[in-house]
Design a protein that fits this description.
Elements: H1 3-17, E1 24-28, H2 34-46, E2 49-54, E3 67-71, H3 77-83, E4 88-93, H4 99-109, E5 113-122, H5 138-156, E6 162-167, E7 173-178, H6 197-210
Parallel strand pairs: 1-2, 1-4, 2-3, 4-5
Antiparallel strand pairs: 5-7, 6-7
Length: about 210
């Protein structure tokens, strides 16, 4: 993992959760265990437990007694929900970064999050992957942009149920703090007035004034 990824976690994720007592953490996506080891540090410090999921066998990442690894898809809901507590304090999504998948995962696990708990979604910024930028990657550009818009759409109809913030360091991070026990409503796409006649006239007027 890049230094920017570690910086993002160390400055925008872990400071928010480091003092949560007896945290129950669900990590979706393990890879080489960068986030896993950091979560386990918090679990050992605060008497918590970490549940991790990945389609690849990452069972050798750690032998910590406070860790349960599940080698399966993160949308294998029936299996996973039998293995984890009914209530969680932290959920970290860093698996398949496609908008439809993020929506499915968010709506399926959010209900298990305690009020005051955090749901983190990695890879929400498409900016590093634009054609002219260093990471230049079509797949990541499009999927991260769609994921960002998906999260905004969910928030648009649930702004009274959770707080939403973003970090755009590295590939970005959505920081969601649950503030209400009420169930989520379906996402509501944002109806922008960008293409309205009023805005078209505004842009024409701006151009006239500039010329």
């Amino acid at each position: 993992m890049s230094d920017e990824y570690k910086y993002k976690l160390d400055h925008f994720l872990f400071p928010l959760i480091t003092n949560i007592p007896k945290p129950k953490i669900l990590e979706l996506g393990v890879q080489n265990g960068t986030s896993t080891h950091k979560f386990l540090e918090i679990c050992n410090k605060n008497d918590g437990y970490l549940y991790s999921v990945d389609v690849d066998d990452c069972s050798k990442v750690s032998n910590d007694s406070r860790w349960l690894f599940m080698n399966t898809r993160d949308d294998n809901f029936e299996y996973i929900k039998k293995k984890i507590p009914q209530k969680l304090d932290i959920i970290y999504l860093d698996s398949l970064h496609e908008a439809n998948h993020v929506n499915k995962i968010f709506y399926s696990y959010y209900e298990m999050l305690n009020v005051g708990g955090y749901f983190f979604i990695d890879d929400i910024s498409h900016l590093p992957y634009l054609k002219e930028n260093e990471r230049n990657n079509f797949y990541c550009e499009i999927n991260n942009k769609e994921t960002f818009e998906e999260i905004i759409g969910i928030f648009n109809n649930n702004h009274n149920l959770f707080e939403l913030n973003f970090s755009f360091k590295s590939s970005g991070l959505a920081i969601i703090k649950k503030t209400s026990p009420e169930p989520l409503k379906k996402k509501m796409n944002i109806k922008s007035r960008e293409k309205s006649l009023k805005n078209i006239l505004r842009l024409i007027w701006k151009k006239i004034k500039k010329d």
